[in-house]
Amino acid sequence: MVVETSDNMNAKLDEQSQVLDNSMNTLRNIIISIERILPKIKDINQYVNEINNEKVQILQGVEVASSVSEEVSVSTGEIVTSSKELSASSSQVARSAEELSNKVEKVSEFIGQFKIASNN
Question: What's phi and psi for 116, nearest 5 deg?
Fold first, then answer.
């Protein structure tokens, strides 16, 4: 019975030893896999940082373009306003020129009523 119990214990210890060996091998494989993956994770992290930097640059470019676009829009509005004012001034000048022409014509007609006598 002691021999049988001892044999059973040895068998169980062998099983436990085998389980521990398998666990150790599995852990070694996990460590090896992690060691292989870490450089790739670092590379991915670096690419993500580069992408974020480029994103920031793009956003800054968009902000500048938006600002310039707003300035162009304001300038365009000012040009339209100036053009309308210039058009109104031109129309006023044209009306004034027409009135002046009418007055010159009336003055000419009025002057034409006077005859200059010649001394012959």
Answer: -95, 125
Per-residue pLDDT reduced to its tens digit, 55-92: 999 999 999 999 999 999 999 999 999 999 999 999 99
Separation CA 34–CA 42 (nearest Å): 12
Closest CA to 60 of 48, 68, 49: 68
Q: Which residue has the tokens 């001034």?
A: 89
Length of the chain: 120
Mind listing the pLDDT tens digit for each residue in 15-51?
999 999 999 999 999 999 999 999 999 999 999 999 9
Q: Look at the pTM and tell me if it is higher than 0.70.
A: no
Sign of CA dihedral 37, 39, 42, 43: negative
Using DSSP's 3-state secondary structure scheme, residue 119 falls into: coil
Task: Give me the amino acid identity at 32.
Answer: I
In order, the DSSP letters of 57-74 are HHHHHHHHHHHHHHHHHH
Q: What residue type is assigned to position 118 of the chain?
A: S
